[in-house]
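chain below, 225 aa
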Amino acid sequence: MTMKKIVSLTLLVLFSISCSFGSLIPAAATPTLEPTQPDTATPLPTSTPVLPTSTFTLTPTLIGYKTHTPTALPTSTLEPSPTPLVLPTDTFMPPVKMEGFVSVNISLKEIYKDKGCFPAVVRITAQLTTTVNVAHVLLFVRFKSLKAERAAKWTTIEMQPIGAGTFIHDLASSQMLEDAYFETSWIEYQVVSANQAGTEVGRTDIFKERLKMLECVPPTATIKP
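prediction:
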């Protein structure tokens, strides 16, 4: 075979092979055009907070409503007394001069005439300024009318010492002069101290309208059949 034929055969073979491979290559796909989509940002994940479950109860506020404030009750209730306050008679009495004495006191302001009514005895107490040269303490008492100037005679009674310069006497109307002539009256009194010879050492003025004697009216016995 000549060289020319060999070259022709070679070219023919190559041409055949190229045709065979050409039929095997697929045709390029034609692209489909679409409108341009705007860039859509991918949303970031949002963290949803977890709210705690409410355990309290809401109290509605009422407009114009005032909360009632309880008022504490007083611990004690004072009531006015229908009876006016009666002050002792001594409150309005002028002071009595007491030379040689610290005090002269009475246990009661009213006693009954000594006929079975009580109280019928009053204690009179006198305290000396000093016991030096004092041997006797004498009590002078008399009845004095409540309305008139009439008065009984003075009765002299020696008081009993109880120590520390203090002397006492328990007085009843039956111990006084002219007791039969007075039912309701004042009892005036005065105290005098003296030495062993009977010479006066101290003396008070007369205590007036401090002690009252009331009439004793015993209850009448009723005899039942």
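The chain has one helix and eleven strands. The domain at 93-214 is CATH 2.60.40.10 (Immunoglobulin-like).
thats it, cya
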